[in-house]
Predict the 3D structure of the following.
Amino acid sequence: MEFAIAAEGTKFWFLENFNIFRDLKDESMQELERITSMQDIRRNQPIYFPTEPSNSIFFLKKGRVKLTRISPEGKEMILALVNMGEVFGEMAFLDEGERNEFATALDDCLVCAINKNEFKDFVARNPELNLRITKLIGLKLKKYSERIEELVFKDAEQRVISFLLRLANENGKSIGEEIFVKPFLKHQDIAELTATSRQTVNAILTDLREKEVINFDRKKLIIKEKEKLEGKINF
């Protein structure tokens, strides 16, 4: 049976554009659309809280989401940023009982949510997805491990620069010899991601701008000398 091409902006169109669902048959995509709900989440609104039952897996179609934990002293630490086209809450697939972090919309977001039990049944009928999910979870755990290594073995400047390079690699667009990243983050958010202070982040970014290695404002980051940045963390 032939299905009409999904109109841009529909739930079907959004789901089709996730790499994890590439090459699935039309019948499977129609089933996926049936079990998926699409939600608009306003900026700074929570998506889920720690200790909540881990019942759903989320696919981010618009905006950015931050995953955070709160220390016993009440300090917020950003574990990761989720960008457009990425999955979060995927540990539910491993029968995680409760969430152990906050998920909060950093921008106005559009999120697709799938009940974990329905998704497991769907994967069972589409076994090619099983390997993709396993790889996805493995990559996420690898990123967490690398982040812990950065916190242990790198100083504040190296952590901030590593973050800038990672941001450029994951979200940047090359124009000539420069890399543009839009939108950029608040200095406070970068501080929480790199376990530094806002003042330290401001000083490091300002120094890099004065040396014409980067440029930035509230809306964008421009990496002008990527090799110089890499040289500051690879020695």
Remarks:
- DSSP finds eight helices and twelve strands in the chain.
